[in-house]
Amino acid sequence: MLSSCTIESRQRYFPRWKTLQNKKKAINNFMILPYVYKLTHKQTGHFYFGYRCQNKVPASEDLGFKYFSSGKTTKQNFNDFDYLIIAEFFTADDAYWHEQGLIEFHRSDPLMLNKHYIKDGKRKFAINGKFSDEHKRNLSIAMKGRVFTQAHRNAMSIAFKNKPPASDELRKKRSLIALNRSPELNAKMLESRKNNMSNETRAKLSAVWKGRKQSPEHIAKLSETKKKPRSEKTKEAIRNAKLGVKHTTAAIKANSISHMKPCTIDDITIFPSQKDLAKIFGWGKSGVKHSNFHFVIPVAPYVESVTI
């Protein structure tokens, strides 16, 4: 707790405390300054650190009279807490970072009600930790129906295009995180990836992508990616993923039927099945993967009708 800290420990953990001590003589009791405060629950001993910079009166006339903390728990039950003004500062930033330093110093204390803190030097007011379900709902409502301007879209596109690739160190970290995920989280992620789009959404996406041509650079990049040989590790992972997977009888039958259809690559020679074509031309781009490969719909023999 702060009351048990010496001046030396305060100076060591909170350098701005020393600045305040040097200027203490200049502080007038009637000056309106940003301040840091502490609330302690009268029964449980739980405590909360906060800071205030929007006060219109001195700290001694503000806390408990005009201002009753910003924490959800403490604000609703302010009368259940004892309050103490720890220090006053000449700037709001000094007060803010002093509050964050106090939270960090007591972060391992289970009685502290503050859940987050920012390390000195990082972005102010950033949120560390997970969003609550209520916060997610509020964000969803706020973003629903929002339309970005063309200028905004162009700016986002440029930002993504100029984004540097992930470093090897970052990739290793992501890989370790993925390996250590719990089965429950994996199942949840798998469920979220399932395609649950409505027919209306599918139609909109289809309309957007229809007729869109890929640039030569993009085609070349895709081609290079396909040419890249798979590593032994990747091959082993694919093999293990497919190991033990059994197709249903319906799937086997459908697969068999699809391979037994007549096909051609030149519209002249028609082969009874893919296998027959592959025996001569192979399974590659000169055969089954030929750009003109297609199945042939057999034409029923013509039978002249006879009137009786």
Number of helices, where a helix is a run of at least 4 consecutive DSSP H or I residues: 14
Largest beta sheet, briefly? 3 strands, antiparallel
Ends apart, CA distance between termini: 109 Å
Backbone shape: elongated
What is the subunit organization of this protein? single chain
Helix content: 40-55%
Using the CA coordinates, give the radius of gyration.
Answer: 34 Å
The tally of beta strands, per DSSP, is 5
The fraction of residues in strands falls at 5-15%
Global structural class = mainly alpha
In spatial order, strands of the major sheet run 2-1-3
Secondary-structure element order, as H and E? HHEEHHEHHHHHHHHHEHE
- List low-confidence stretches: 1-13, 21-28
Mean pLDDT: 79
List keywords for this structure.
three-stranded antiparallel β-sheet; mainly alpha; single chain; 14 helices; 308 residues; elongated; disordered N terminus
